[in-house]
Amino acid sequence: MIPSSSSKDDDLLSSSSDEIENMAMRALEHLDETKTDAHVVHTEQDENRKELKEKAEKGEIDQEVGANIQNEFGVCGWILTILSYLLIFVTLPISACMCIKVVQEYERAVIFRLGRLMPGGAKGPGIFFIVPCIDTYRKVDLRVLSFEVPPQEILSKDSVTVAVDAVVYFRISNATISVTNVEDAARSTKLLAQTTLRNILGTKTLAEMLSDREAISHQMQTTLDEATEPWGVKVERVEVKDVRLPVQLQRAMAAEAEAAREARAKVIVAEGEQKASRALKEAAEVIAESPSALQLRYLQTLNSISAEKNSTIIFPFPIDLLSSFLQRPPTKLKLFNYQENQTVRCSGDDSRSSDAVRRVLFEATGGPPPSTQTVWFNTLLTVTRHYYVKTSTSHRVFRPSLMIGSESCAPSTMLPHSSKTHAC
């Protein structure tokens, strides 16, 4: 029986899926093995680093290196050494100046003989001897040195480009390792500081860069110290010097900060006004309950004013005495005709003089007034903005149309010697 095409496809699919599954399993096993090997290598490196650090502290590294050098020095090396010593003795007065060297308290000398490190490690401080022609040495400064990390253009975690520079303080902890393991320890540390600064700040946001400088400095110092330990370098301190933002971003942040300050100021002013209003309300309630409190307040004000050196003192006038004058003034002119006299009351400007009122009355009568006519002002009631005009005659004094102040009046029929009241 010939199998159908569908069964063949199913077999192919099943076989291909099995192969893919097997390949995936093998890849996972290989990945696990790689991870295990990497972990083992990393563990060994950590152990070697710890051992190297302990030996460097105890000075065992220099002794081991010296022993290996002594074993591998060879016959030629010994022959050249003997010849050099003979040359020194032959030219002793002159060679003494070339053999004696001095290093300062803060310096160490790493001596090489025929290109190999001398046993005993670095020499100094003080006097040490070298053999001319076969010995060379390098001085290493053990003081704390510093360098500035050039400004680095860094893209922060929140996609903001900033320029950051820093200062690194370091010292040489092991002179022998710093000479034999790295060409230029200071330059290598400087280059490593640049990359470390970029790597660390690339994982920080702008707010963290501006606020957590101390944490960033500590993290950078720890990372650099671990990386430069095989070079014989000890990183003492790292300081983030400056974080420079783009000009546009600075303007935007300044505008935002100013808007926030204005908003807080408005809130504070509103709260102050609210508290002041409540205090005034409570004070008004207290004064309303006790009218004598207002008089006491007047006396306190007078006391405070009298304490100052002022030539003018303002005495407060009791409000209850002015209550009768604070009513609304009449808006229309009224004319009263009596048997004995005639009184005219009108509203107008309180700056109007008696001569002006007399002139208006003269024009209203159409001729000169009687000799008995008088015009006067009540000076006490000037604050009510009213004028009182009194005449001793009873004949008609107003024409059909009269303008006094801002009021215009056209009285109705007015009879002489009448007691009726005609209003506009």
Automatic annotation (TrEMBL):
Keyword vocabulary terms for this entry: Membrane, Transmembrane, Transmembrane helix
Gene name of the encoded protein: Acey_s0029.g1920
Signal peptide start and end residues: none
PANTHER family: AT06885P-RELATED, BAND 7 PROTEIN-RELATED
Transmembrane as UniProt keyword: yes
Assigned protein family: Belongs to the band 7/mec-2 family.
GO cellular component: neuron projection; plasma membrane
Region Disordered, annotated ranges: 36-57
InterPro entries referenced in this protein's UniProt entry, alphabetically: Band-7_stomatin-like (IPR043202), Band_7 (IPR001107), Band_7/SPFH_dom_sf (IPR036013), Band_7/stomatin-like_CS (IPR018080), Stomatin_HflK_fam (IPR001972)
Transmembrane residue ranges: 78-103
Compartments, as annotated in UniProt: Membrane
Pfam families noted in UniProt: Band_7
UniProt name for this protein: Band 7 domain-containing protein
Domain Band: 98-257
Record's keyword annotation contains Transmembrane: yes
CDD domains recorded: SPFH_stomatin (cd03403)
SUPFAM superfamilies for this protein: Band 7/SPFH domain
Organism: Ancylostoma ceylanicum
